[in-house]
Structure formats: C-alpha cells, structure tokens
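Ops channel
N.P.: pipeline sanity check, posting one input/output pair.
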C-alpha cells in the first residue's frame, strides 16, 4: 500500500520523463485526475484518460516533450506531505513561485493553480510546484 499517492504520481512522471516514455499508467483517484487535468491544461502533458483493467481504474498520462529528448516538465516537486502539511493564503503564493512556474493547490473551491486561486480569492494546501 502506498502512503503518499501524490508523491508516487510525481515520482512516476519524473521516472517516465527520464527514460523518455511516451505514456505512463498510475492508479486512479479523483485528486490525481484533477492534477493531471491541470497539467494538460497548462501544456505540461499531452493528454490523460481513465482506463479500466481487471475491475480497477487507472489514469494513463501521455507525456510531452519539447523536442525529441527535452521534457516539457523541467521540474516537479512535492511541497505538502502527509507528515508536514503546507498551507498558504492568497497573498503568500507570489513569494513561493517567484514568477517562475506555478503551484497546484487544493482549495475549498477544488484543485487549481495558484493563478486560479488568486482569481477566486482563496488559499489552500500547496500540493506541488511545477516549472
């Protein structure tokens, strides 16, 4: 059993990019699906789709590369962990990104980027930082 499924998702994405895989498969959850949809919307992965294998659901992520070898994701880093949660208000988000990349937040209004959270006017738990 995996304790931190989001860290597992991030590790699978990083490992898939290192070996230049076209797609990876991860166990499905609503939170992972929302994170994947944000990555698609922001242009860091090509597509994601839900598949079913032997009565279990999985997410299939199609990784994106700038050219044949350079991944679209330079770095993806888990911020909030099960042992140490990290929350920010809407004013503190600018300090974390420093204008480089973006944050994915879990807010009372749903999972969204830091820019979306600023528009709505909410803060939340910082899931990860991507650039």
């Amino acid at each position: 059993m995996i304790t931190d499924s989001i860290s597992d998702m991030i590790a699978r994405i990083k490992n898939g990019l290192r070996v230049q895989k076209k797609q990876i498969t991860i166990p499905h959850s609503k939170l992972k699906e929302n994170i994947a949809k944000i990555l698609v919307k922001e242009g860091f992965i090509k597509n994601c789709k839900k598949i079913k294998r032997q009565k279990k659901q999985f997410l299939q992520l199609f990784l994106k590369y700038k050219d044949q070898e350079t991944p679209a994701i330079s770095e993806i880093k888990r911020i909030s962990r099960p042992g140490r949660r990290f929350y920010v208000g809407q004013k503190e988000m600018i300090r974390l990104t420093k204008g480089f990349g973006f944050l994915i937040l879990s807010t009372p209004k749903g999972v969204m980027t830091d820019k979306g959270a600023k528009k709505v006017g909410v803060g939340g738990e910082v899931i990860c930082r991507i650039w």
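N.P.: looks fine end to end. The two ends are 29 Å apart (CA to CA).
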